[in-house]
Design goal:
This is N-acetyltransferase domain-containing protein. One of its GO terms (molecular function) is acyltransferase activity, transferring groups other than amino-acyl groups. Pfam families: Acetyltransf_1. It comes from Ruegeria marisrubri. By secondary structure, the protein is α+β, with helices and mostly antiparallel strands. Helix content is about 35%, strand content about 20%. The chain has one domain: Aminopeptidase, CATH 3.40.630. The chain has 6 helices and 5 strands. Helix 3 (about 45-55) packs across helix 4 (about 60-70). The longest helix is centred in the last third of the chain and has 15 residues, at about 125-140. Residues about 1-20 have low confidence and may be disordered.
Length: about 180
Amino acid sequence: MPHELRDDPAANALELDYSSPDGDAGNALSHDFVPVRSMRESDLAKIISIDAESSGSERTDYFSRKQDEALNQSGVRVSLVAEQDGFPAGFIMARVDYGEFGRTSTEAVMDSIGVDTGFRGQGIGRFLMAKLMANLKALQVETVRTEVDWNDIPLIGYFSSVGFRPAQRISLSKPL
């Protein structure tokens, strides 16, 4: 018998199980409960606002450059925005590289991720990450790389929960 709408909202809610028996959470989560779309130029102000809420600093120049790179300087657009009620609620910025430092490989670099504080705890970061991973897998990207501040325990915990592990590389820097 088909599901009929009733006056009781709880009776109308069908719970669909998209979990994957093979443990592929990225594929399971890529079924859109949260609308995720490609980033647009018009998203810049909200991206800056979301980041400022999290970081405590306004980084307009950084995100303007990153968005220009993602939308205008890359042949493959992979940066995404999640929406709630038609408004940007989170973003993820990434790019696909085909090698660096003398190595050739298909690798994506994830530069930034952010979720509006009013929408945290609703799985938006996970939906963004799952959609990014599904898109990158379709592009035959082999690995995804990002960097996290050593002391940012909550962000390290988030990345661990979505399958990231420490890389076998050491990033070196020298102050000038």
